[in-house]
Design a protein that fits this description.
It is built from one helix and eight strands; from the N terminus they run αββββββββ. It has about 120 residues and is mainly beta. The protein has one domain. The protein has a four-stranded antiparallel beta sheet with strand order 4-3-5-6. A hairpin with a 3-residue loop joins β7 and β8. The longest helix has 5 residues.
Length: about 120
């Protein structure tokens, strides 16, 4: 199972929309996005650090301030999922494609995967 497959369905926000981290533009279902994920040294899970619209999306980590741990940039689209029992909906990541990662690592997000080089 690839990391892209594991990231598909990643919970982005609550409600039916999210906003761009940089410009606060509302992002809705089917909008293309770039997300930045991070993983601390002791952690085995990826955590959502930022969600960008196409106009604000960084294309590499050279455009971002340095941080500790591992980072991952991923492109995709916003999808919406719903829990029929609670009638709650939330945006998820659909069709993810990894752009860049800061280092090769083993990670867990519902399954253990290796980040492709």
């Amino acid at each position: 199972m690839s990391l892209e497959h594991v990231l598909c369905g990643l919970h982005i926000d609550t409600g039916t929309t999210t906003t761009c981290t940089e410009c606060d533009r509302e992002l809705t279902e089917c909008d293309p996005v770039t997300i930045r994920l991070h993983q601390n040294k002791q952690d085995t899970r990826w955590h959502l650090a930022a969600c960008y619209c196409l106009g604000c999306a960084p294309t590499s980590f050279e455009e971002l301030p340095p941080t500790l741990g591992t980072q991952l940039l991923c492109e995709g689209r916003i999808g919406i999922t719903q829990d029929d029992q609670t009638q709650q909906t939330w945006p998820i990541l659909v069709s993810p494609t990894i752009i860049e990662t800061t280092r090769r690592t083993h990670v867990t997000y519902h399954a253990t995967q290796e980040v492709p080089e």
